């Protein structure tokens, strides 16, 4: 009888669909390629040593995008996000730079992550009108209150850093966005992204091809929300690390307050050590912050 039960169990398991989880327990191995040396950031109280502390709240997402090319359907991991289902914004998105392509037209609609609200589809997709989304931001949040709060959808992994058209399209998911004050998004933050874009032209892998690792994150506010649901973060930060054409590792970080800019501002570059100190003061949960491995990424200077 025991043998029959075991055979029945094996048969049942064989009939189940393959595990193509998009929302995962840990980032590895589904999307470790987006982290330098396959090492995820350390954020005290949130993610330490690759383990999420509150797994009911924080969800690692291997951002999978479905597209068609020459009548063939592909499903590909494009970047990685740690998502806060309480604040309904990303903690960070991690992505790689692999060169610049032509800028394509922006999609008409932003997508969502079905699995955060019980969906089974393992790829980002458009909202289902029949579903009430309680664990993530939706387009309606921005449509209803965006103008009132003077915010728009601010990319974490920006379209401008994506290479191919499909990579660019994949950045338009609300699990890769925060409510960003329009004048900040279109002002000092955009200027900073263009400066980083210049830096990234120096970044190469060991075969001479363009390659850099980037992480962009947000520090949530205590009570400022969009549509009484979605946290409007106080601060945004970004950092990159790469091996450059001078055969040295270089790293740089920026951060800025998510608030209205009435005059033109310029965000100053910082070392990784300065970024880590700033984030540690904001998270205030003990332990050290680290975005990239200390070796090879220089802590105290922009390059070794």
TrEMBL record:
Cross-referenced SUPFAM superfamilies: His-Me finger endonucleases
Keywords recorded for this protein, A-Z: Signal
Occurrences of domain DNA/RNA non-specific endonuclease/pyrophosphatase/phosphodiesterase (ranges): 75-292
Taxonomic superkingdom: Eukaryota
Keyword Signal found: yes
InterPro entries for the chain: DNA/RNA_non-sp_Endonuclease_sf, Endo_G_ENPP1-like_dom, ENDOD1, ENPP1-3/EXOG-like_nuc-like, His-Me_finger_sf
Gene3D superfamilies: Extracellular Endonuclease, subunit A
Residues in the signal sequence: 1-21
UniProt key word Ribosomal protein: no
Domain ENPP1-3/EXOG-like endonuclease/phosphodiesterase: 76-282
The protein's name: Endonuclease domain-containing 1 protein-like
Organism: Salmo salar (Atlantic salmon)
Phylogenetic lineage: Eukaryota, Metazoa, Chordata, Craniata, Vertebrata
Gene behind this protein: LOC123738297
